[in-house]
């Protein structure tokens, strides 16, 4: 470091020379460091953090710092420099830095056993950073300008999530005619809506940046036939998605399936899916996410695949990091409407336990219809979480499950089922309740898809278009 000493004045007989004033020049090593224009701060008894930001030539940069005040004293800081990632707005830059902070925090704490106070500090820091991430996407569309192909589209759960983030529909593929009617009734546009993925041609859809969809799960589900890839009409259709991804070469693919795929055929099915997508030129990140952690009252665990093409990877060590759900507060009672006349179940219920006194963050089974302990016969309290919606389950009301609501036991209505999956109130369900419940059971939890899709962009290089 260079040091400059300057005198404030000349010495004379009448006055004593002032003490030397030290002035430090900017060291060579810090030549790229940028002075901050603003800062977001976090101060907790167990941890401290900040995100500093600055404007550069009409764009914004931001970097994070955090440190723990006890335990193993984990810390990580990054300088704000001309090499920092540039974003179009302050909110986007801060949100991107907050997302990187979350990734660094989880890496720093991985494998550590934290005390109660340290865990509280870590949880508070994570919640603060997540709020900054969420705030960065409220008033902007992170997928603006990107086009998605919705495969195994159902009634458009993926469509709603991606459209809300600014993407536009390049096309959709759905075999079920009734589901296609519901899709068209709710999603305006001139995009092609094809019926059978086996006859779909890549040339139908033009430029595609994102391929998304939940491929048929019955062949992999613990509740299904477990035929796997041997089922030509269900499990084997995964390879049709792979065909389209290979031909269209989108930057991003977001796929969803049941958790049972991971264990099917002793894990070999899961390995085949991973290898197939990787061999197409994609990094593949997977995680099981529960809709009940993303602001929904439904306990619905699903396996998500985020595939990013090699040409746009920004981080080869951590190609993508999944969001963690931060809202497990919702219960079935929050989405209920008025009980329709004649909706009460008249069959006898064997009481297992009293109704809970307050709100529960799990499924509280309080009784069994006809004494049968299986899907479609279990009765849960509406003051807890809800059963996973199903398309074809058996029992008295296998699609939604039964709930103790006040003094009656009943199934969910089609509008309540829509809310269980996060569909907006403006959504128009199929006129037939039976068809509508099947379609919602086949759909995806929209807030989970939105959370995944909204956090992808910071992991991409400069341009997600191919």
UniProtKB/TrEMBL annotation:
Domain of life: Bacteria
Catalytic EC class: transferase
Catalytic activity, reaction form: a 2'-deoxycytidine in DNA + S-adenosyl-L-methionine = a 5-methyl-2'-deoxycytidine in DNA + S-adenosyl-L-homocysteine + H(+)
Gene3D superfamilies: DNA Methylase, subunit A, domain 2, Vaccinia Virus protein VP39
Gene Ontology terms describing biological process: DNA restriction-modification system; methylation; negative regulation of gene expression via chromosomal CpG island methylation
EC number, UniProt record: 2.1.1.37
Matches recorded under InterPro entries: C5-Methyltransferase (IPR050390), C5_DNA_meth_AS (IPR018117), C5_MeTfrase (IPR001525), C5_meth_CS (IPR031303), SAM-dependent_MTases_sf (IPR029063)
Entry keyword set: Methyltransferase, Restriction system, S-adenosyl-L-methionine, Transferase
Matches recorded under PROSITE patterns: C5_MTASE_1, C5_MTASE_2, SAM_MT_C5
GO molecular function terms listed in the Swiss-Prot or TrEMBL record: DNA (cytosine-5-)-methyltransferase activity; DNA binding
Active site: 217
CDD domains reported for this sequence: Cyt_C5_DNA_methylase
Family membership noted in the UniProt record: Belongs to the class I-like SAM-binding methyltransferase superfamily. C5-methyltransferase family.
PANTHER family: CYTOSINE-SPECIFIC METHYLTRANSFERASE, DNA (CYTOSINE-5)-METHYLTRANSFERASE 1
Record-given protein name: Cytosine-specific methyltransferase
Species per Swiss-Prot/TrEMBL record: Pseudoduganella aquatica
């Amino acid at each position: 470091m260079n040091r400059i000493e300057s005198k404030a004045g000349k010495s004379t007989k009448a006055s004593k020379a002032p003490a030397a004033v030290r002035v430090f020049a900017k060291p060579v090593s810090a030549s790229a460091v940028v002075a901050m224009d603003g800062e977001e701060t976090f101060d907790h008894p167990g941890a401290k953090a900040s995100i500093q930001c600055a404007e550069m030539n009409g764009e914004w940069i931001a970097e994070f710092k955090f440190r723990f005040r006890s335990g193993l004293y984990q810390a990580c800081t990054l300088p704000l420099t001309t090499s920092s990632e540039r974003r179009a707005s302050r909110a986007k830059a801060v949100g991107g830095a907050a997302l990187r902070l979350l990734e660094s925090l989880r890496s720093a704490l991985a494998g550590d056993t934290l005390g109660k106070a340290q865990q509280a500090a870590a949880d508070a820091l994570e919640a603060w950073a997540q709020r900054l991430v969420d705030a960065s996407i409220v008033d902007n569309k992170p997928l603006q300008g990107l086009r998605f192909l919705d495969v195994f589209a159902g009634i458009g759960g993926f469509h709603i999530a991606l459209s809300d983030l600014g993407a536009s529909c390049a096309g959709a593929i759905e075999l079920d005619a009734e589901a296609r009617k519901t899709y068209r009734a709710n999603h305006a546009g001139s995009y092609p809506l094809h019926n059978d993925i086996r006859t779909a041609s890549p040339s139908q859809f033009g430029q595609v940046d994102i391929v998304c969809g939940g491929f048929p799960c019955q062949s992999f589900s613990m509740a299904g036939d477990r035929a796997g890839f041997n089922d030509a009409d269900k499990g084997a259709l995964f390879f049709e998605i792979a065909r389209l991804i290979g031909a269209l070469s989108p930057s991003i693919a977001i796929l969803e399936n049941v958790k049972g795929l991971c264990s099917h055929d002793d894990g070999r099915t899961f390995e085949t899916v991973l290898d197939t997508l990787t061999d197409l030129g994609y990094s593949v990140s997977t995680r099981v996410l529960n809709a009940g952690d993303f602001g929904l009252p439904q306990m619905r665990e699903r396996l998500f695949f985020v595939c990013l093409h090699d040409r746009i990877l920004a981080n080869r060590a951590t190609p993508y990091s999944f969001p963690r759900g931060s809202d497990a507060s919702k219960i079935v009672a929050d989405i209920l409407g008025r009980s329709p006349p004649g909706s009460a179940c008249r069959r006898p219920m064997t009481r297992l336990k009293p109704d809970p006194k307050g709100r529960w963050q799990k499924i509280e089974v309080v009784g069994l219809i006809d004494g049968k302990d299986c899907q479609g016969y279990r009765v849960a309290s509406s003051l807890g979480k809800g059963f996973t919606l199903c398309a074809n389950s058996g029992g008295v009301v296998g699609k939604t499950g039964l709930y103790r609501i006040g003094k009656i036991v009943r199934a969910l209505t089609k509008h309540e089922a829509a809310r269980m999956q996060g569909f907006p109130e403006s959504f128009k369900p199929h006129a037939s309740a039976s068809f509508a419940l099947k379609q919602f059971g086949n759909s995806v939890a929209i807030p989970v898809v939105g959370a995944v899709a909204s956090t992808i962009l910071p992991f991409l290089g400069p341009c997600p278009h191919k």
